[in-house]
Design brief:
The structure is a single chain. By secondary structure, the protein is α+β, with helices and mostly antiparallel strands. It has two domains: 293 residues, no CATH class; 301 residues, no CATH class. It is built from 22 helices and 17 strands. The radius of gyration is 31 Å and the shape is elongated.
């Protein structure tokens, strides 16, 4: 009897030494894997090939095997076509599975491939590959890993194949013990790092006992809920992950992986593969290695201990100029790198053309300092910018006194736009319109105009009042006098600009009236200055603005655009280094708002000096026609 037990123990030990899951533990291991198989929430697509939604679901790897348009390569040379699981068995590094398509120029090819193979959303066979592991130097801990495979990574680092993971940790040594208790922790992979949570933490959503995870759109980095998530370090990755709804619910089924070599001919023999699960391009566009090649596979507890306890969410309210700009810059930079790799000559030529154009613009103007007073005098664009910066540097308190009004006005108007977008009926309609390229301007009016335009107009009003008093008194006026002067013209500006804005929108809606709308928009760039500096109102102010802009529409448009970009572009750029220092998002955006508040008067003064230039030009061409 004792001899029989000893022989059985020796057989079990021998099987364990080969790395296979012990037979006596297989049933318990499968039960454990089935119990906690995750529910995956994928960002819903509005239509096929919609880049704002998720096109790829967590799937079985089997559909990619035996496909005649897939290649199996070694060191870049094709070995065979249509690789099978048997072809992958025990293959070392240097091998790669190359899918049909170009990762650097994916278009809709991979999404269509995924649909053909049943690996789209929802996937035909939503598999989570379960792996149970312990770590010798971490006794009393058992990790239950779920590896999720996606056909394509449609993120900043485009690549074929994508492996992500969710891991549960138990205070147990065996699956049988783990079945008798709840997990203590869960860890989710996010790019090069991860985020952990206590099993009882409210941020972890559950469907029964199954954890609910939210992969980032395109990247598949896993998060605990809906949101726009910020990564800003080498360990996190750099970029923004979007898990905002609506979402498609995908419950996965667990397929238990062996810890070692399952043997050739096994249904899971591909787990021994050491090569890449995608085209072998240069980093970061190369296909990833499989789960069994990572430290997470052999040191799961150490990996979890090194993960973060939280992720940084970007608030969905309208003043996050720095974080939103950061996301846009990273996306633009990633696209540029992709273009350089895909079409290097064309991209370099395009960048060179842009650089030459900017150089021509810079060298085509004059940059010497011209005094602010009198306001009505001829100036080149560079002189307007130089004079504005110089004056604000000499009078920073006056600049900030004008700029601080921009912050609450922009925030309140942004909240109004956010409120409109949150209304159950209007919100979805406006967001859908904003996603359509042909109706992009509708989304811009809905979300961007309230904060930016109102605050900018107020800044121009204050600066216009400031220069009017300065010209009249010959010295810098007190802030109280400036506020009083601007307040007397609030109703006039509101009526004149409001009526003109209604005309612009009305013409734009007709589509055929867009050219006239653009013409009125250019004229409107000088309307506030005319109302405040010259105390004109009604039709008189609009006719005066039209006269000032005549035969100079392009110049006014370019300078106005440049001036508006000063707070919108330079302020986030100045605050971005603080973001990389891992400061809280609210601190970074507050600093960005302060920079914007300081730079908004500069932009407003440029616009007032532009008015002065046009008034001087009109007076010179038509003596007797001037400011009041």
């Amino acid at each position: 009897m004792a001899l029989g037990i000893l022989l059985l123990a020796m057989v079990a030990l021998a099987l364990g030494s080969r790395g296979a899951t012990p037979a006596w533990a297989a049933s318990a291991a499968q039960q454990l894997a089935d119990r906690y198989a995750p529910v995956v929430m994928l960002k819903e697509q509005a239509r096929e090939c919609d880049a704002t939604g998720e096109a790829y679901g967590p799937s079985s790897v089997n559909p990619i095997f035996g496909q005649p348009d897939f290649l199996f390569t070694r060191d870049g040379a094709t070995v065979l076509t249509g690789p099978t699981a048997a072809d992958l068995y025990d293959k070392p590094e240097g091998y790669a599975i190359d899918y049909p398509g170009s990762p650097l120029d994916p278009g809709c090819d991979y999404e269509q491939l995924a649909r053909r193979l049943g690996m789209g959303v929802p996937p035909k066979d939503p598999v989570a590959y379960a792996h149970i592991a312990t770590q010798e130097d971490k006794p009393g801990k058992l990790a239950l890993q779920y590896w999720l495979f996606y056909l394509f990574n449609d993120y900043n680092n485009l690549h074929e194949g994508d492996w992500e993971m969710a891991q549960l940790v138990f205070d147990a040594d065996t699956p049988e013990q783990a079945l008798q208790q709840a997990p203590t922790e869960i860890g989710l992979s996010q790019h090069n790092a991860g985020e952990r949570s206590a099993w009882t933490d409210p941020k972890l959503q559950k469907d029964g006992q199954r954890p609910v995870i939210y992969p980032g759109q395109g990247s598949h980095a896993n998060f605990y809920g809906e949101g726009l998530w910020l990564e800003r370090s080498p360990s996190e990755g750099v970029g923004c992950d979007d898990t905002r709804g609506p979402s498609v619910r995908v419950p996965t089924r667990a397929v238990l992986l062996p810890s070692g070599n399952p043997g050739k001919g096994s249904a899971l023999q591909w787990i021994t593969y050491q090569g890449q699960w995608g085209a072998p391009l240069r980093a970061p566009y190369d296909g990833p290695p499989g789960p069994n090649t990572t430290d997470r596979w052999t040191q799961p507890i150490t990996w979890q201990e090194q993960t973060r306890t939280s992720s940084t969410a970007i608030p969905d309210v309208g003043s996050e100029i720095v974080t939103s700009s950061f996301c846009a810059v990273v996306e633009w930079g990633s696209s540029l790198l992709t273009d350089l790799g895909n079409n290097p000559i064309i991209t370099i030529i395009a960048l060179a053309v842009i650089g030459v154009f900017i150089l021509i613009l810079v060298r085509s103007t004059r940059w010497n300092y011209v005094p602010i007073s009198p306001t009505v005098r001829r100036r080149h664009a560079g002189q307007m910018i130089r004079s504005s910066l110089s004056l604000m540097r000499r009078n920073p308190l006056h600049a900030l006194s004008v700029g601080v009004f921009f912050i609450p006005i922009a925030v309140v108007a942004g909240l109004i736009g956010w409120g409109i977008s949150s209304i159950p009926f209007t919100g979805p309609i406006l967001r859908e319109l904003g996603e359509e390229s042909s109706l992009l301007w509708v989304g811009a009016i809905t979300f961007a105009v309230p904060g930016g335009i109102i605050g900018y107009i107020v800044a121009i009003m204050l600066v216009s009042a400031w220069v009017r008093l300065r010209d009249a008194q010959g010295s810098t006026p007190p802030v109280r006098a400036v506020l009083h002067e601007a307040r007397t013209q609030v109703r006039t500006v509101a009526k004149s600009v409001g009526l003109r804005a209604a005309q612009i929108v009305g013409l734009g809606i007709t589509v055929i009236g867009i050219p006239w709308a653009l013409k009125l928009l250019v004229e409107t760039q000088l309307l506030t200055q005319v109302c405040v500096v010259e105390h004109r109102s009604g039709r008189d102010s609009r006719m005066r603005a039209r006269a000032l802009s005549r035969r100079s529409w392009l110049r006014i448009a370019l300078i106005s655009l440049l001036a508006s970009l000063v707070p919108l572009v330079i302020a986030p750029m100045l605050a971005m280094p603080i973001l990389l220092l891992q400061m809280p998002v609210w601190v970074v955006n507050l600093v960005g708002a302060v920079f914007a508040a300081a730079l908004t008067p500069v932009a407003a003064l440029v616009m007032v000096l532009l008015y002065g230039d046009r008034a001087a030009a009109l007076a010179a061409s038509a003596p007797g026609v001037g400011a009041r």
